[in-house]
Amino acid sequence: MSTAIRFDRGHTDDLMSFLAASPSPYHAVANAAERLEKAGFRQVAETDAWDASTGGKYVLRGGAIVAWYVPEGAEAHTPFRIVGAHTDSPNLRVKPLPDMGTEGWRQVAVEIYGGTLLNTWLDRDLGLSGRLTLRDGSHRLVLIDRALLRVPQLSVHLDRSANTDGLKLDKQRHMQPIWGLGDVHEGDLIAYVAQEAGVAAADVTGWDLMVHSIEAPSYLGRDQELVAGPRMDNLLSVHACTAALAAVAGEKLDHIPVFAAFDHEENGSQSDTGADGPLLGTVLERSVLARGGSFEDKARAFAGTVCLSSDTGHAVHPNYSERHDPTHHPRANGGPILKVNVNMRYATDGSGRAVFAEACEKAGVPMQHFVSNNAMPCGTTIGPITAARHGIKTVDIGVAILSMHSARELCGADDPYLLANALVAFLEG
Q: Which fold is adopted by the domain 91-213?
């Protein structure tokens, strides 16, 4: 019997609001936590002792969040069902000494984060977001969501071959945004950002700041059947996972549903907030121990655990269809994709396929397959890392999009809620 459909286009509307409000990983996890708290979850500190109480809980660490719901009757060896994603997206990030300029232009020194499509950041109105670290060790979120920065492209009159030989961008020389005119003074940018955040510049001891496009997400197409927006890779999945966990909280379950979203996937996941760090394993183990469990109970719980690693994939591109596998052509609004790579760039195997196919069938959601063209390298996700680090059965899934790693990506308007419904069915078991 199919699970009742829980989400519709209203979910996509909410996704667009979530994307606009989450220009940095720190904003994304704060917004996810706010949604979970409305569903009855409460934050627990890693530095506190944890108890065996039931209900929804979550941990925040930087740009990462792990949330779980302990149902009535859960035992120490009760297995988990995990939905995972990542909170970071390729972009431009502010360097430690950001004030620079030349020829009377004031600029901001940035570093390239992840594998971003550089040309998509040109000639856009850009804002600034992230967090400030204060002298007392606390953090302050900051969001300047107006036209503050711009990376101007060289005029075609000064680059006559740009349209014939292709645009060539030097990451160091050509990608530094301008933010005004005048002389360069050390400390100007951070003083400005501190004022925007409502703190004294003298109290700012560190920062994690990044550039974002201020253009709002929007519906697109003759029938409004598409959505264009920033950071779909991978906040589309973060949003769906958050909604799915909130939806199953309170249900009578024979397992513990978990949502984990990590930072730094776009550059290898090797950090204390990345999937290759200890955060997820530590949270799951402490949950077992809080219920009076032992190492044996943890081993039993992990042996029965399954994880869905949700990340965006490539929809077949109408202008470059030859870049895709000839027999695997995921389409927008065709439902979530199951990602397969025999070299384990994705963690999916045959038994994992069965798990996700069952969830989609239960939810009444169509499922598609994604496999890379043999002649092209395949990307990877947090899936193989999760499987190898924790010994957990993991399945790679997601939503097919166009323009991945662009400053503005494109997906089908139905796919976000189809994914969320499939995740609900999976978490329900």
A: Aminopeptidase i, Domain 2 (2.30.250)
